């Protein structure tokens, strides 16, 4: 897994038609686009996919579409998480995971479990599958922080918990995980604007929103960082930085869908409660793209 999920993973959007139905033709086009521009693996049904707004049937169909179009060209990770452990275990049984290479599972949100609760939750998830698990820590969205000691405990004690996507934005916390991780435990950045810095401190790659649209430059930046060519990587980092920040100015994936719409990859359509970016942010995005 250290090699399989190293480098640039892309948290794929779910494109919608103007009537808000899933646009599977656009999704196939996006899969081809990101693979041809250098991503190392695909992540289906993450936060960027607007997964909370998808029905159970749509989730299964989106995953199947991505797997079929990918056709084994890269590994595929499926996002499966929730804040009701028993219901989550039931949900996992409804997915065809035969061709999925790993599961990305977010920390339970809203109900703010303790570290012991988080440990027991993820152990239950891992016990329910033979797939490799990537923990996902994003306290800005979930309201709870998976602390380094808990990550390391899970990594050491649960054989199929083999990585973490760290999106706390806390460099000291990231360094503590890097310093204490066991062999073959992958640490992935979840913050696009910190990804280069994260790799410089010893992380293995990224699961990225920006890789949907700034794909070639972003993948190059990550690859250069991994091999220590930081001067070249830094140029790409600063080339993209304003654009990356604009992707999140009015929330994700509103920004990335604006960019991808301008690129002709999808319609600029989101499902409520998400809405497109403001006119002012859209103007800034277009200005950046025309630079």
Helix content: 40-55%
CATH architecture grouping: Alpha-Beta Barrel
Alpha-carbon distance between the termini?
39 Å
Number of domains: 1
Percent of residues in β-strands = 5-15%
Describe the sheet with the most strands.
8 strands, parallel, barrel
* Unreliable residue runs: none
Total of helices: 12
Short recap of the structure:
The protein is α/β, with parallel strands linked by helices and 291 residues long. It has 12 helices and 8 strands. The model has no long low-confidence stretch (mean pLDDT 97).
Describe it for me?
It is a single chain. The protein has a single domain (7-229), classed as Aldolase class I (TIM Barrel, Alpha-Beta Barrel). Helix content is 44%, strand content 13%. It contains 12 helices and 8 strands. It has an 8-stranded parallel β-barrel, surrounded by 6 helices. The radius of gyration is 18 Å and the shape is globular. The mean pLDDT is 97.
